[in-house]
Design brief:
This protein is α/β, with parallel strands linked by helices. It is built from 16 helices and 16 strands. It is an enzyme of class 1 (oxidoreductase).
């Protein structure tokens, strides 16, 4: 190793080193007017390549970034500071439940006891199986379900798994000709997609003037072709379906099953259970309700719960307790596997730790605070909220293009809400602050909403102006995406 390379590897500077700082034509590296070059724009070194591989698979030399450790560390630190995450501040995306992910769950997941190979025998992983069994039982108690599978690796995967369980049940009952899944117009898009992927025709159900399910329309739609009604409660407007018992009766009288989309379960913890409302199947979003990372922060997990009649169709393997020991088994009429082993194992560990830390009383406080925060924030902003009373989230109506409002909020240092959806609200701003945020942070959010509301259309159309990435041509980006750094 040369003296220069020795100095770089040990974090020492090299005399005479010059840093390239010429503006790059892409604006993605700007933040507050300060340019952050790419690593290969700073300093590079050409190294020779020696390999025993055939010549047509190798090159003679390679140009690599050639920087001291402090430069590399500062580069990535500056890039991280240009980003925004839940550790930076609130992310009030409606129906996403972007709550803070507590650090203690990471410590629990990192425990050496979790490093057990899944192919070890049941006898050699009793602690792991006990955790899985207790999490199954706990989720079942929270949701009012008789049996739970932990396998599906995301909420949408849980939906698809639940629909497959329903389909297997109908086929076993001699009802395999049922071809329709009813979905309210305000439902999450994954409901429509999951039903279609499972081979069903989707029947869209209109909302009534209060933003809830139109019961008369449901009565007209439900019939011998109905396999499922998929429902979120509270719905995406944050409204609790007051007619849920009548809804369940209509679906069951038609021979169908009632599916609960667990995206908004955070508002019901300790207060109400889907099973008690008449739901037959539900999925849990561990990465939402139980604060494990999701989105860019890590894999999700979407366990499903079912009533007793559907338990034999759950994916394999399941975990059960027998005379104080734990074993895996295959349900009698299982639909098979939907994921390797038990899904994303460490996500399950984090959710289990989160539930135990809070306990029954803590989970109830979560839902109470989530509802309180949403109602407080809605009362503080100037934008109209057309539907209520709501629970954990609300949908405001922007006076201007909701996308412009969202981009302008970035200039005020906060993450915007979900925009343009649900479509039954004009220029929707779908907002869910979660229980995580303090009153001071909610006041900051409200101030950002109001500052944008007072901004003129011309200025909104230019936003954002202070962020690393400026306004882009969204249509062109969607039609001609750049999927490699080589294209930048």
């Amino acid at each position: 190793m040369s003296q220069e390379h020795h100095e770089r590897a040990n974090g020492e500077s090299t005399d005479g080193e010059a840093e390239t700082d010429a503006p790059h034509q892409q604006t993605r590296w700007y933040a507050g007017g300060q340019y952050e070059p790419l690593l290969n724009e700073k300093s590079t070194d050409t190294v020779s390549v020696e390999s025993s591989l055939p010549d047509d698979l190798t090159r003679d030399e390679l140009e690599l970034p050639d920087l001291a450790e402090p430069e590399v560390t500062r580069h990535y630190t500056r890039l991280s500071q240009m980003n925004y995450g839940i550790d930076s501040g609130p992310i009030p995306l409606g129906s996403c439940t972007m709550k803070y992910n507590p650090a203690f769950t990471e410590d629990v997941a990192a425990h050496r006891g979790n490093r057990v190979h899944p192919l070890r025998s049941d006898e050699d992983k009793q602690g792991i199986l006990r955790l899985l069994y207790e999490l199954q039982e706990t989720l079942g108690a929270i949701g009012g379900m008789d049996a739970v599978t932990l396998q599906p690796p995301a909420g949408a995967a849980g939906e698809f798994t639940g629909i497959q369980v329903a389909k297997a049940y109908h086929e076993e009952q001699g009802d395999g000709s049922r071809s329709e899944v009813i979905v309210p117009e305000s439902a999450h898009g994954t409901n429509f997609a999951s039903a279609a992927m499972a081979g069903y025709d989707v029947v869209e159900l209109p909302s009534n003037e209060d933003g809830r399910v139109e019961v008369d329309a449901l009565e007209a739609a439900a019939g011998e072709d109905t396999a499922l009604l998929m429902l979120t409660n509270p719905n995406t407007l944050g409204l609790f379906e007051r007619d849920i018992e009548a809804i369940a009766e209509i679906v069951h009288d038609a021979g169908g099953l009632l599916y609960y989309d667990g995206a908004n379960l955070n508002s019901l913890l300790g207060k109400a259970r889907p099973g008690d409302m008449g739901f037959d199947i539900m999925h849990f979003n561990l990465h939402k309700t139980f604060a494990t990372p999701h989105g860019g922060g890590g894999p999700g997990q979407g366990p499903i719960g079912v009533v007793a009649d559907l338990a034999p169709f759950l994916p394999t393997p399941q975990v059960r307790e027998v005379d104080g020991d734990y074993e895996t088994y295959e349900p009698d009429r299982s639909i098979g596997r939907v994921h390797e082993f038990v899904g994303n194992w460490l996500v399950l560990v984090k959710a289990y730790a989160y539930i135990l830390r809070h306990g029954d009383d803590g989970l109830e406080r979560i839902s109470e605070t989530a509802v309180l925060n949403a109602n407080y924030l809605a009362s503080r902003i100037e934008y109209e909220v057309p539907y209520g009373p709501f629970h954990h989230e609300f949908v405001a109506s922007a006076d201007e293009d909701a996308a412009d409002v969202a981009k302008a909020m970035l200039d005020h240092g906060v993450h915007p809400p979900t925009t343009k959806w649900p479509e039954i609200v004009d220029e929707a701003l779908m907002t869910e602050p979660t229980e995580t945020e303090s009153k001071a942070r909610l006041d900051d959010l409200a101030a950002a909403f109001d500052a944008v509301a007072a901004t003129g259309p011309a200025e909104l159309a230019e936003a954002p102006t202070t962020t690393t990435a400026r306004r882009i041509d969204q249509a062109s980006a969607a039609r001609n995406p750049r999927l490699s750094w080589r294209d930048l």
